[in-house]
Amino acid sequence: MEQIRVDVCYHHVPVIIVGTGSGLSYAPLGGTHHSCEEMGMLRLLPGLAVVAPADEMEVRGSLEAALKSEGPTYIRIGKKRRACGA
What we know:
Layout: H1 2-9, E1 16-19, H2 38-43, E2 49-51, H3 56-68, E3 73-76
Parallel strand pairs: 1-3, 2-3
């Protein structure tokens, strides 16, 4: 958090940070592997765009927008592709 706040947000640099395996993606491994709080913490940082795309099309759109952005972006994605209906 400190590195993102000080090195990225404070200087408002166009950095894209991607978090993967978020939420309960690693549920079988237990609570130590769950990433549930990072969205709340990162939303507190000024100037950081935080997005959580739901599917492949939204990931593409989020990445395109982040590449055009003049500021930092955090993109939260799942750990693997799911089969339709899963």
